[in-house]
Specification:
The protein has one domain: 3-Layer(aba) Sandwich (Rossmann fold), CATH 3.40.50. It is 35% helix and 19% strand. The chain has 6 helices and 6 strands. It has a 6-stranded mixed beta sheet with strand order 3-2-4-1-5-6, sandwiched between helices. The longest helix is centred in the N-terminal third of the chain and has 16 residues, at 28-43. The mean pLDDT is 93.
Length: 167
């Protein structure tokens, strides 16, 4: 089995509207969501052995927090341009070229690309995929290159906003 967790970056700041999109940082709500994401990973026993992230600052900071919470070496965090600039087909190729040694992969990125990728893999299109949202997919394969469109099974999805509102 192979597992993929798709995570939309935590909430970003719009304090400086002149700041290029690629370098927008997390805002306070986004930074406060990071421990909630870590709790979600712990609760659902998500233990990634590789994290792909967009090069955007907000996605990178989200990915780093998840990596640190899981005791991952920085070598297991890969910045990939196609997660910011690419298409669902490019993300599929990225996944298909992942080394079979990795069993539990995370992609941290952006909308609307992530929803489209979930739909490509599972046939399910999330109506809304909020910042910090986590969507888990399983694949009944032993190697990533065997993954095809529609071959993923939706396991669960979690909206961290629902959890932070309860606290």
């Amino acid at each position: 089995m192979k597992y993929l967790s798709i995570v939309r970056h935590a909430k970003s700041s719009w304090d400086d509207p002149e700041l290029p999109d690629l370098v927008r940082p997390l805002n306070d709500r986004g930074r406060n969501t990071l421990p909630v994401l870590q709790e979600i990973f712990s609760e659902y026993n998500i233990v990634p052995d590789l994290i792909y992230t967009s090069p955007a600052t907000r996605a990178l900071h989200t990915a780093i927090a998840l990596a640190k919470a899981n005791g991952m070496a920085s070598s297991k965090l890969a910045i990939r341009q196609e997660i910011y600039f690419g298409t669902t087909q490019q993300l599929l190729k990225l996944l298909q070229h992942t080394d079979a040694v990795f069993s539990d992969v995370v992609i941290v990125g952006h909308e609307p690309l992530l929803s489209g990728f979930i739909e490509l893999l599972t046939g399910f299109l999330p109506e809304k995929f909020p910042t910090g949202g986590t969507y888990r997919i399983s694949f009944a394969v032993s190697e990533w290159h065997k993954i095809q469109a529609g071959s993923g099974k939706s396991e669960f999805w979690v909206n961290p906003k629902n959890r932070t509102e309860k606290k």
